Amino acid sequence: MNTDANNTENLARTGNQCAAPFPLAEITPSQHNPISKRFSTVNDLMDEIEVDLRINLGQTTMKLDEFLRLRNGSVITLDQNACEPVSIFANEKLIALGEALVVDQKFSVRVTELIGL
To answer: Which CATH number does 51-117 carry?
Structure first.
């Protein structure tokens, strides 16, 4: 008994359609698809996808009256020591730890441990 054939027959009878899974490498551009005119391979498409990265240096909690007194020059002390690793998030998921640096007058992070890739 061929279950795939039976499933296809059942779907055909009910009017439902389904697509069989396939590896991404098998995707080929269509001449009629405006996206495929711009991207000739899946890798080209993936090169255009952006990932939101966030670096967490620490956090703190303050009372409302302290919050309301914040002004230019106020210093907020975080719970994390300067020598502790910072958390690196991709699309809100923790993916790595790193070391905070300053490179060419810009904050930077050196990845020290991959966690969730």
So the answer is: 2.30.330.10
